[in-house]
Design goal:
By secondary structure, the protein is of the alpha/beta class. The protein has 16 helices and 15 strands. The chain folds into two domains: 235 residues, 3-Layer(aba) Sandwich (Aspartate Aminotransferase, domain 2); 126 residues, Aspartate Aminotransferase, domain 1 (Alpha-Beta Complex). The strands form four sheets. A seven-stranded mixed sheet has the order 4-10-9-8-7-5-6, with helices on both faces. A four-stranded antiparallel sheet has the order 11-12-15-14. Strands 1-13 form a two-stranded parallel sheet. Strand 5, helix 6 and strand 6 form a beta-alpha-beta unit. It binds pyridoxal-5'-phosphate.
Length: 409
């Protein structure tokens, strides 16, 4: 690697990150390990190229090769998700949402989105986010008793508030989302419907989660979570919104697209179209269910009572430990997860009463149900006992697991 000589400080940090990824259990639900071909594409010379515009209609010369990869990415995305139009240029999931909102709405319009505290994302209406600052936000949440979306309550709010856009999708909701029901609600109140499938895109692509495409005007996603691609975003929509979406991404909200990342998105979609991606995604869901069952058998309370996706949310209140404390203790043992608010959380967002766990990265590493059962025991021991001896023992077990399942790109 040339960087070793030319910038040893950055080189060392990258090497240490490689080491960290190899020697810890990555259980952050929004993370994954990108395969070598994705790293190669996103580390390629396509980073050099300015390509404002779209394939065949660029504002710069020399775009023939980047046109090839963007066209491949678009065509593969359309095949993978069965959508009429795909824009692969958003730099991130947040950029995809900004561009989609501004394509469909005027500033000040009413957006109904899931509250962050109930599992929604910042871009679904948080007061400090562009969404909450530029649109009138009507939040909806989940039922207190079972932490599930109450579709009749969503309908009641929608009929009363008459939003211009309903946003469905979440960052920390372990159950499946019924997009058909959302579409019935949106048509009854005259709203447009956007599904943000950033988290579940890989499950949707594999047919393991209800498909939003037939029911939504626009679908946004990230490519780096369950889809296992490069860090980035994408917007899919019906043909009638295509021109508005494209204009909103460029020139509306972005300049030159990240062509190296778009090349990697094309590779990601090819991988997700292959038969073995279905096996991978089934493994992710099966592992999440196994982890949930094993945690429950140890007396751990789970938000919604379990999982139907790739993620779980632990309600730590009965164990007398906060999300912040649990995250730190687990990290000391090499188990990487994140504190997360639970619905109606009495703790502040930087403390929280919850812990979010996901299985996409461990499944990429080749781990299965037996490993999930072992990891569930390590986690429960740590968060129940909270002592150095338990953490030390777990750290040893984590090292063994990492050696047994080396990270192969
Ligand atoms: N939408 C949802 C549901 C998410 O969970 C996330 C990220 O976690 C995003 C959007 C934003 O993606 P990004 O971090 O790429 O901006």
């Amino acid at each position: 690697m040339k960087i070793k000589k030319r910038d040893p400080e950055v080189y060392r940090a990258i090497k240490k990150e490689e080491e960290r990824e190899n020697t810890t259990l990555e259980m952050i639900a929004s993370e994954n390990y990108a395969p070598a071909e994705i790293l190669e594409a996103s580390g390629s010379c396509m980073t050099d190229k300015y390509a404002e515009g779209y394939p065949g209609k660029r504002y710069y010369g020399g775009c023939e090769n980047v046109d090839t990869v963007e066209t491949l990415a678009i065509e593969r995305a359309k095949k993978l998700f069965g959508c009429e139009h795909a824009n692969v240029q958003p730099h991130s999931g947040s950029q995809a949402n900004i561009a989609a909102y501004l394509a469909l709405l005027k500033i000040g319009a009413k957006i109904m989105g899931m509250d962050l505290s109930c599992g929604g994302h910042l871009t679904h209406g948080h007061p400090l986010n562009f969404s909450g600052r530029n649109f009138k936000i009507i939040p909806y949440g989940v039922r207190k008793e079972d932490q599930l979306i109450d579709y009749s309550e969503v309908k009641e709010i929608a009929m009363r508030e008459k939003p211009d856009l309903i946003v469905t999708g979440a960052s920390a909701y372990p159950a499946k989302i019924d997009f058909e029901k959302f579409s019935e609600i949106a048509s009854s109140c005259g709203a447009l419907l956007l599904a943000d499938i950033a988290h579940i895109a890989g499950l949707v692509a594999a047919g393991l989660h209800p498909d939003p495409v037939p029911y939504c005007d626009v679908v946004t996603t990230t490519t780096h979570k369950t889809l296992r691609g490069p860090r980035g975003g994408m917007i899919m929509c019906r043909e009638k919104y295509a021109a508005d979406i494209d204009r909103s991404v460029f020139p509306g909200n972005q300049g030159g697209p990240l062509m190296h990342v778009i090349a990697a998105k094309a590779v990601c979609f090819k991988n997700a179209l292959a038969d073995d991606f279905k096996n991978y995604a089934s493994g992710v869901a099966e592992n999440a269910r196994a982890l949930a069952e094993a945690l429950k058998s140890q007396g751990v309370t789970l938000v919604t009572g379990g999982t139907e996706t790739h993620l779980l949310l632990l309600d730590l209140r009965p164990l007398g430990i906060t999300g912040k404390e649990a995250e730190a203790l687990l990290q000391a043992a090499g188990i990487i997860a994140n504190k997360n608010s639970i619905p109606y959380d009495p703790e502040k967002p930087l403390v929280t009463s919850g812990l979010r766990l996901g299985t996409p990265a461990l499944t990429t590493r080749g781990m299965g149900v037996r490993e999930m059962e072992l990891i569930a025991l390590l986690i429960t021991d740590i968060i129940k006992k909270k002592d150095d001896k338990t953490v030390l023992y777990a750290a040893g077990e984590v090292k063994k697991l990492c050696r047994k399942f080396p990270l192969k790109r």
